[in-house]
Amino acid sequence: MIEYDGPAPTSRRRHIVRLVVFAGFLLGMFYLIGVARVVDVDAVRRAVAATGPLAPLAYVGASAVLGAIFVPGSMLAAGSGLLFGPVVGLFVTLGSSVGTAVVASRIGHRAGRESARALLGPKRSERIDALIDRSGLWAVVAQRFVPGVSDALASYTFGAFGVPLWQIIVGSFIGSLPRAFVYTTLGATVSDGSSPLTYVAIAVWCVTAVVGVFAARRGYRHWREHGH
After folding, report:
1. CA-CA distance, 183 to 79, in Å (whole number)?
2. What is the pTM of this model?
3. Helix axes 122-145, 151-160, angle to 10 degrees
4. Which of 2, 21, 88, 181 could form a disulfide with 84 if both were Cys (CB 3.0 to 4.6 A apart)?
């Protein structure tokens, strides 16, 4: 008699359909927000500015949600710098980045965690859990350094794979710091392209991109060695 360790075929199909629907939803959201730009970020910025002293907190909340639905983080960070300057704007951007990571990871965890584990099977799931325990925090940090990767999409994925919330929060804060500084500073100095801060921001962006490429290569090799 042969024992089957994975989910039953009907259950497996259900999990596949669930993940496909979730992926389709994210893809549609990415197209509408990130490509078609159906959200007017300038209108959001004006509405936040109208809240007066509460504007920084309002922008953190609004940006956290907008980032989770794929409004580009660079645009939100630049808006933060434009509204609040390089110092206050940096903290607002960091708060927004962490907020987006929390929102997206919780949705990813709720929508995809059970199905991902069911399809991977218990043995692979245990290996991935062990890998997350060892290096999940630094995986989140490294992802934030990699250029061209959507932070929101990565956070949905981290949530689906069960990365703990504390790792999401701490990793997002640490990893988002360089880019938050870059885009917030560029937004704050947009009217003065010759500002020394502009050149510092560009230098930080270049260093961050190089570090991100090396981190991605190293992380991929580590995953190949220990994740399978």
Report:
1. 9
2. 0.84
3. 160
4. 88
Contacts of 98 (CB under 8 A, 6+ apart): 64, 169, 172, 173, 176
Q: Is 205 helix (H, G, I), strand (E, B) or coil?
A: helix
Angle among Cα 115, 121, 127 to the nearest 5 degrees reads 110
Q: Is 4 left (phi over 0), alpha (psi -120 to 50) or beta?
A: beta
Alpha helix positions (H), the chain: 9-29, 41-49, 55-68, 73-120, 122-145, 151-160, 165-188, 196-226
Asked if 68 and 152 count as a contact pair (C-beta separation under 8 A), the reply is yes
Q: How far is CA 47 from CA 40, 41, 55, 118, 134, in A?
A: 11, 10, 9, 44, 43
Length of the chain as a residue count: 228
- CA-nearest of 93, 209, 104 to 153 is 104
Contacts of 133 (CB under 8 A, 6+ apart): none
Name the residue ranges covered by the structural domains of the chain: 19-220
**Taking the C-alpha atoms of 169, 173, 175 and 178 in order, what is their torsion angle to the nearest 10 degrees?**
170
